[in-house]
Amino acid sequence: MLVIGLTGSIGMGKSTTARLFAEEGAAVHDADATVHALYGGPAAPLIEAAFPGTVRDGVVDRKELGTRVLGDAAALAKLESIVHPLVREAERAFLSRARDDGAAVAVLDIPLLFETGRDRDVDKVVVASAGAEEQRRRVMERPGMTDEIFKRVLARQTPDAEKRARADAVIDTGHGIERARAQVRAAIADFAGS
């Protein structure tokens, strides 16, 4: 089974690209959905212990947690030390199920793939990307997004140009879904032949 690590900076179309891989028959692990489930389950008491007052009715209040950790490197590292091992455990279970189901391709959606050295854990790396103006437009449409938050998030991420240079394939999401779909198909075909 070929294991692809899918990444991309904020607003670059990673979720759309993951969906396109799924439509081509790949098994896809959604990191955001996993974290969402963890925040309403096993991670909640651990996060509450580390950041008192961030859990309400057994579910992590993402907005409150964000105000505590964004811009605070030590707090963010503490949160990641709680969440990342749980996400990796979920990924291992997903890959085991995908192998058992006979999947030819499995995609791990890993937001901070290069930043956390996870590129070493996959066979191929795919980067979702779009132009800087399109990225900014998409991100600023998100509820509660501010220029300051956007800058903080970008500061934590490997620059898009570096991600593109290190990728085995780049999916350009800035020119419509059909073009991106063709690039996903081409990447799968190329990987299958290598």
UniProtKB/TrEMBL annotation:
Principal cellular location given in the protein's record: cytoplasm
InterPro entries per UniProt: Depp_CoAkinase, P-loop_NTPase
Residues that hold ATP according to the record: G11, M12, G13, K14, S15, T16
Known catalytic reactions: 3'-dephospho-CoA + ATP = ADP + CoA + H(+)
Subcellular location per the Swiss-Prot or TrEMBL entry: Cytoplasm
Gene Ontology biological process: coenzyme A biosynthetic process
EC class (word): transferase
UniProt GO MF annotations: ATP binding; dephospho-CoA kinase activity
SUPFAM superfamilies: P-loop containing nucleoside triphosphate hydrolases
A single GO cellular-component term on record: cytoplasm
Listed pathway(s): Cofactor biosynthesis; coenzyme A biosynthesis; CoA from (R)-pantothenate: step 5/5
The enzyme's E.C. designation: 2.7.1.24
Recorded superkingdom: Bacteria
One matching Pfam family: CoaE
Keywords of this entry: ATP-binding, Coenzyme A biosynthesis, Cytoplasm, Kinase, Nucleotide-binding, Transferase
PANTHER family: BIFUNCTIONAL COENZYME A SYNTHASE-RELATED, DEPHOSPHO-COA KINASE-RELATED
Matches recorded under NCBIfam families: dephospho-CoA kinase
Described purpose of this protein according to its UniProt entry: Catalyzes the phosphorylation of the 3'-hydroxyl group of dephosphocoenzyme A to form coenzyme A.
Family recorded in the similarity comment: Belongs to the CoaE family.
Record's protein name: Dephospho-CoA kinase
Gene (UniProt): coaE
